[in-house]
Amino acid sequence: MEQNLLLTYLLFAPIVGSVLVLFFNKEQVKLVRWFGLIVSLIAFVISLIIYFMFDQANPQFQFVNKFLWISSINVSYHIGVDGISLLLVLLTTFLTPLTLLSTWKAIEKNVKMFTFSMLFLEAGMIGVFISLDIFLFYIFWEAMLIPMCFIIGIWGGERRIYASIKFFIYTMVGSLLMLVAIIWLAVYASNMTGSFTTNLLDLYKVGASIPNQIQGWMFGAFFLSFAIKIPLFPLHTWLPDAHVEAPTAGSVILAGVLLKMGTYGIVRYCLPLFPQSAVEFAPVISVLAVIGIIYGALVSMVQTDMKKLVAYSSVSHLGFVVLGTFAMTVESVQGAVIQMVNHGLSTGALFLLVGVVYERTHRRDIAYYGGIAKIVPFYSFALLFASLSSVGLPGLNGFVGEFLILLGSFKSQVLNNWWFTIFAATGVIFAAVYLLWMYQRVAFGVVKNHELADHLSDLNTREMIVLAPIFVLIVWIGIYPSTFLKLTEASTQLILQQVSTYTVNLLK
Which residues contact 300 (CB under 8 A, 6 or more apart)? Predict the structure, then answer.
């Protein structure tokens, strides 16, 4: 393989695979499942090759591939990865085959179209992370919206239509604002440089010189779109509905990767393109992040539905990521990036485990369960392990990200207030309360429903194969995080240098 074409191969593997799926007969369900799994594994292998060939000491974009696409407006097919985007590409290609494998028994209706949607969604997510042309980025950003809506709306629960439409409307509103800002930014760049460009690297050179008032509006449009996707309080109300109604595979991908597109967008676009506005609005946004941390945790405590509890926990956990990003220290931003991965692993595992019992009993209400540790010991251990990971137990992945975010926020000159760290730290305590309380009511005590012994069976081999790689990474990141922190360190420092170059005066 030619190095500069590796990313193109990675992007087109799921696209070609999704198109080929359409030529299968509807009745060839088993063949369709295996084909989708193999295509997603091919994408994962290509991403691993990119990882091993990636120069971690080089902060610049690598594996760059560029050619003119729409000559009339100077739009290029321009892709590349740095340490941050590569880590999220690996997360995407890692989770996709696991989610496809998890649906072997859960999805029985129209398997062909489901596999098509999942592969097309994977291509859209990869495209978002590797785009270096802002117009191309927007196309992928919108493209992944369509298969996700179908996944929720066709294979979801009773209120699936309502949830998918709500998800679509929320995301579309933010996306249209971002489109206006993209056009505005490109036109402004053409006025300054004499040529219309959507090249992200060229726009980096222009963005910081935009007058503060105009930059504020552009920043606001970009940030609002990303904040809806994260989702940041108070723009989070679409998330519980989407999670609860989505099938298990949809929830895993939604929590594991799609929400990270918002936080990635802030790191890749908001900070380096609009540094003055990013610093100016950082305290206000950080207040919203801290409110989200506490609010998401408190609302999780009162949930009676296991899936809804995990969904609201995402609001809390991603509040940490936003806080770390806008603290703008090396520790906090690296913590935010690694926490994106941690959340994808731990929350993805929790959704998979909720899906396991739902497939068997068709019940998710906590009160229905109780004492299941006696009936399904392996499942109960897996649920405890995933819960402790999400809580942030030292030795597991969640601790690394949260510690770095809190440390970096405490040292932050941009926030310059240790109250942010104190209030955010309470989210760790609340997380232990709602997750361990849920676990106690589900796993321990007396068996409330004796029919559980008939309906519940322990993890089978396929389910163990799905969970095992996630658990290995949870321990790996917890014990030896430098494997992943080294990957993002140089890129993180470069982004913060881009910001600090233009914000020294604002911090005085």
Answer: 309, 312, 313, 316, 430, 434, 435
Asked if 419 contacts 347 with a C-beta cutoff of 8 angstroms, the reply is no
Residue 262 lies in a domain: no
The DSSP bridge partners found for residue 86 are none
CA 408-409-410 angle, to 5 degrees, is: 90
Q: How many domains is the chain built from?
A: 1
Residue 325 backbone dihedrals phi, psi, to 5 degrees: -65, -45
**In-domain check, residue 78:** no
What is the token pair recorded at 158?
A: 């009773």
- How far lies 289's CA from each of 104, 227, 368, in Å? 37, 10, 34
User: What backbone torsions phi and psi does residue 28 show, to the nearest 5 degrees?
Assistant: -85, 60
Residue 486 lies in a domain: yes
The domain in which residue 398 lies consists of: 277-508
DSSP string for residues in 440-480: HHHHSS--S-TTHHHH-----HHHHHHHHHHHHHHHHHHH-
Sign of the dihedral through C-alpha 186, 190, 195, 200: negative
Mean pLDDT of 59-78: 84
- Residue 23 vs residues 32, 60, 177, 178: alpha-carbon distances, Å: 10, 41, 37, 36
* CA pair distance 28, 94, nearest whole angstrom: 26
Predicted pLDDT at 91: 92
Higher pLDDT, 207 or 41: 41
Q: What is the CA radius of gyration of the chain?
A: 22
Overall average pLDDT of the 316-332 stretch: 89
Query: How far, in Å, CA of 289 to CA of 294, rounded?
Result: 9
User: Half-sphere exposure (CA, 13 Å, Cβ side) for 317?
Assistant: 36
Using CA atoms of 303, 307, 309, 311 in order, give the dihedral in degrees to the nearest 10: -130
> Is 448 inside any structural domain?
yes
Question: Rounded distance, CA 366 to CA 277, Å?
Answer: 44
Residue type, 392: G
> What DSSP line would sit under 48-116, residue for residue?
HHHHHH--TT--S-EEEEEEEEEGGGTEEEEEEE-HHHHHHHHHHHHHHHHHHHHTTTT--SSHHHHHH
Residue 507 scores a pLDDT above 80: no
